[in-house]
Design a protein that fits this description.
The protein is of the alpha+beta class. The protein has two domains: 79 residues, 2-Layer Sandwich (Gyrase A, domain 2), CATH 3.30.1360; 76 residues, Alpha-Beta Plaits, CATH 3.30.70. It contains four helices and ten strands. The strands form two sheets. The chain has a five-stranded antiparallel sheet, covered by helices on one side. The chain has a five-stranded antiparallel sheet with strand order 3-4-5-2-6, covered by helices on one side. The longest helix has 13 residues. It is globular, with a radius of gyration of 16 Å.
């Protein structure tokens, strides 16, 4: 069966791993986001940046790579609030997008996560697995995005294209 999907390996992103409680994260990111996600496994986007609340006191901030220096200056990794940790991790994940009519079908092949809208809503994000590899998965308009350890990028890209043709 051939699936009607578009697969795209994305450019590297500016990516920050943030650990801290909701109040501290709000204070840290007030200039970037008016509203911070308060429910685990949800995200919000603003001006091309996405803030993902992926677990207890664990956040990921993703932006364009061209914004990395500006975000690095704003977030001050290593010198942030006493109760907050910010680590620049841009070079760790390779992101892919799967979009189109068959996106959910392809994601059902590559991951055991339940992608039905009642479970994985339009603002959902979570760590799960893609082809048995830990992946940060989020729903986007008309499909999904996921990031895997960059060392697996070529393999995942190959597997994705083979899945489309299966």
């Amino acid at each position: 069966m051939v699936y009607e999907v578009k697969i795209n390996r994305q450019r590297i992103s500016a990516l920050f791993d943030i650990k801290g409680n909701l109040l501290d994260v709000k204070e840290l990111l007030v200039s970037l986001f008016q509203k911070i996600p308060e429910e685990a496994n949800t995200f919000t986007s603003n001006n091309g940046k996405t803030l993902m609340y992926i677990g207890r006191d664990h956040w990921m901030l993703r932006g364009q790579i061209e914004e990395e220096e500006e975000l690095n200056t704003l977030l001050k990794p290593g010198a942030t609030l006493l109760n907050t940790s910010v680590v620049l991790v841009s070079d760790t994940l390779t992101f892919f997008s799967v979009s189109g009519v068959g996106a959910k079908d392809i994601m059902a092949i590559v991951s055991s996560l339940d992608f039905y809208e009642t479970k994985f809503r339009e603002n959902s994000v979570t760590f799960s697995e893609v082809f048995g590899i830990k992946a940060l998965i989020k729903r986007v308009e008309n499909g999904f995005e996921f990031g895997v350890d960059q060392s697996y990028g070529d393999m995942v890209e190959d597997y994705l294209h083979k899945s489309v043709k299966s």
